[in-house]
Design goal:
The protein is built from nine helices and twelve strands. It has 279 residues and is an alpha/beta fold. The protein has two domains: 3-147, HUPs (Rossmann fold); 156-275, HUPs (Rossmann fold), CATH 3.40.50.620. The strands form two sheets. A ten-stranded mixed sheet has the order 5-2-1-6-7-12-11-8-9-10, sandwiched between helices. A two-stranded antiparallel ribbon has the order 3-4. Helix 1 (15-28) runs parallel beside helix 2.
Length: 279
């Protein structure tokens, strides 16, 4: 039984995150934890709402605080109701300290963390990838499933493979955590540089590995710039795919100059992304 963690903001509840987390829990016959990030520094209201002619209004503050408490309680109720309808094993964690720190700690004891790729844990919308998600992916202690804001059942899996250990590790972790997905159509996608031969990296041992886990997998090899070719290829897929990749392998300074593949896919496409990286 795997432990799946759904990272949830009770003030801006992502039903999509819950739905994907429930699907992953069903697929792995696991246990789902709804980690509600009730960060004590985060509220739905803004400071200007508290300021009146006579300064900060304690009465207004109390009303707004009570509204936040009510909203968070309703979100927990929605999560519990959806889990009951799905007949899965579940629990609720109310994490009231700094959200990033609490979630990273939760991830140590989870097999998979599911989070909406738009999550900010703040009042403000941010461009994708958000600061919260990037910080999470850099330090997380478990594989992560980044999901779009609308749920669609997965009907195909794309495994990104470039010969690096990180890409193989991600495939391994996906198979270990969600082995039931082997029954879906599966495709290994590799991109080679223009000057390279159009052969799968480590072809013999890679196909031997894949035969043990995804014996019916198809293979697609393309030439060109990986970032551009992968995005263009995935854009033309009509099915609801889940993409598996290793990510955030480079050091922080390197990522300042060149974004991670995960950053690019989050921004350009609207598919769920399974990300695992060995540290």
């Amino acid at each position: 039984m795997n432990k799946i963690i759904a990272a949830l903001d009770g003030l801006k509840l992502s039903r999509s995150c819950i739905q994907y987390a429930i699907e992953m829990t069903n697929q792995s016959r696991g246990h789902l934890v709804g980690a509600f990030l009730d960060d004590f520094t985060y509220h739905s209201y803004k400071i200007h709402q508290l300021v009146g002619p006579e300064g900060v209004s304690e009465e207004t503050l109390q009303v707004l605080e009570d509204e936040d408490v009510s909203t968070r309680e309703k979100s927990v109720g929605i999560f519990e109701e959806l889990c009951e309808q799905a007949a899965i094993s579940y629990a609720v964690h109310r994490d009231r300290n700094i959200a990033t720190r609490e979630l990273l700690h939760e991830s140590i004891f989870g097999d998979l963390l599911v989070i909406d790729k738009n999550e900010t844990l703040s009042h403000y919308d941010e461009p994708i990838p958000t600061r919260f998600v990037r910080d999470l992916l850099t330090h997380v202690q478990s594989p992560v499933l980044l999901v779009p804001d609308k749920y669609k059942p997965v009907d195909k899996v794309i495994l990104l493979y470039n010969g690096d250990p990180a890409s193989v590790y991600a495939i391994k972790m996906f198979n270990y955590i969600l082995p039931s997905f082997f029954s879906l159509p599966t495709e290994v996608l590799s991109i080679k540089a223009e000057k390279e031969s159009l052969h799968l990296p480590d072809k013999k041992i890679m196909k031997e590995f894949m035969k043990s886990h995804y014996p019916k997998a198809a293979y697609t090899l393309l030439k060109g710039d990986p970032e551009a070719e992968i995005v263009e290829y995935l854009r033309h897929i009509k099915q609801n795919v889940l993409v598996v990749l290793g990510a955030y392998q480079r050091g922080m300074v390197s990522r300042w100059f060149k974004p991670s593949m995960a950053d690019i896919l989050m921004k350009e496409l609207n598919f769920p992304l399974f990300i695992a990286h060995n540290k």
